[in-house]
Design a protein that fits this description.
The chain has about 150 residues and is mainly alpha-helical. Helices cover about 40% and strands about 0% of the residues.
């Protein structure tokens, strides 16, 4: 399967973050987008709330200028983060009063979030979802034989 450079780099960074315990949904530098953007939190200024899908003025300026951050547009970054947080069990946007998982850094919780993010990254690059295991179970149905 041929993938884009941005996809390969994002997957590698998320894989390393997951296995090195540097993935934390509540930290702007260690969340999905924080890891994709090399542990920088400048992306949080693209919207007014962590987990929001709405670009603020600064985000709209960058989006309209066609800026990309490690290959992703501001809107794509917000989609990635919202997908990650939602799959981890957070109610969006992130707020101390909103619902959140009991243990946000639990490996099972993070894996659910990463699986959803990988699916979105595949969709953004128009490739088949590499996390979809349904292909492994596909089989060709044969017509039933009639015995007389």
């Amino acid at each position: 399967m041929i993938t884009s450079n941005r996809f390969d780099q994002a997957i590698q960074k998320l894989y390393n973050a997951f296995h090195n315990d540097t993935l934390n949904p509540e930290c702007c530098k260690q969340c999905a987008v924080g890891n994709i953007l090399d542990h920088k939190d400048s992306w949080k200024h693209l919207s007014n709330g962590h987990g929001s899908l709405e670009l603020n003025y600064l985000g709209m300026v960058h989006q309209n200028l066609g800026r990309r951050f490690n290959g992703y547009t501001p809107l794509e970054l917000l989609q990635i983060e919202a997908t990650f947080l939602k799959a981890c069990g957070f109610k969006l946007p992130l707020h101390y009063r909103n619902k959140k998982p009991t243990n946000p850094t639990d490996k099972n919780t993070l894996f659910k979030g990463l699986s959803a993010v990988v699916g979105l990254l595949c969709k953004l690059d128009n490739i088949n979802n590499v996390m979809d295991c349904a292909v492994l179970f596909n089989y060709e149905k044969k017509p039933k034989e009639v015995l007389f």
